[in-house]
């Protein structure tokens, strides 16, 4: 570190321990090098627990479960990953994590995770229906698009048949909401709606479930994200459900990805999939049903005006277009989160304009709406300015590699072979292209 940089160290240390996000960084050996106060608070750890122990020892993770290690191995960032789990103090925590690789020139030297604790927001704002203890019913679900109308219609059929249901969809698409709506649609109704959050690999969780399912009480059980349970726990869960099946009971589950892929990758037990899949309902991501965006915003703003007297009534046409073009990786939850952020800062405005959007969203949305290069960009044409040769070569190389990757279904080994280069060389170029894309 340069002398000048050293003098900033106390400022950095102060900032790291006073920011509102949890920060966890590891070096290339998986050893913790930064673990700030907010992260300790989120994960319920004491300073002595952390020391210089590796992340694997600290959390008893299976190697593949740690996002930090995944990023360290792949060199690829992972953004907007929602995690709900019980921390060391037994408190249920929901975070949204962004994890980045750290490069020193071309060498990958570690990874850093930035975690925003959204537990309170989730409880208070994201689940407004639960907050009021009102039952969640189909009437509260926004479904303007044909695809969502079809989802609701199948979900109602499942409620009439009272057969097991599997909800398939990306995070934030509304699986929980639909599960609870199915429960409230049942006739005769079930006494209780239990949710089993499968985000923890703690065997006690499943044991507690066994106790709750003793007897013959009519109930609905929603096993949220069964694909996040370890396979041995999925086997236990299946045995418990088999034993507890009863005509008065409805079992529902959700998964975050295509079941065929989850089974093939060893994340989902085939038999558990069969158990739930009498009704397999796929909820499309928001980017494939953009007709639902404006009705959701309108319902959100109406609710906000009723509760907090907010003056906001809609969004500008520029924002509407941006929202339609953005790919919403966090789906409706991400849209709700964004609206929370914007509306909490609004005062007398009646329309949400581009200027009111947070910087992080503007940056993300710009990246996704940027026009990709076309083959015609590399042809010398009359009236078109010539590029400096090295810029032309860089852009042409990036274009050619991207096309080659697409042609080989993003398989690095196949593409490297086709391009006559080593896998490492291609990986290096892909990383370089990504960094150049990000550079302002
Ligand atoms: N169609 C919808 N209409 C109204 N609100 C919705 C809709 N879809 C989702 N939401 C809201 O978005 C948030 C996320 O929904 P939900 O928790 O049901 O998603 P999920 O698919 O179960 O996500 P995860 O897999 O991460 O648990 C909730 O606040 C929910 O109220």
TrEMBL record:
For this UniProt record, the keywords arranged alphabetically read as follows:
ATP-binding, Nucleotide-binding, Transcription, Transcription regulation
Task: Say which domain of life the source belongs to.
Answer: Bacteria
Domain Sigma-54 factor interaction as annotated: residue spans: 141-344
Q: What is this protein called?
A: Sigma 54-interacting transcriptional regulator
Query: What is the species of this protein?
Result: Sporosarcina soli
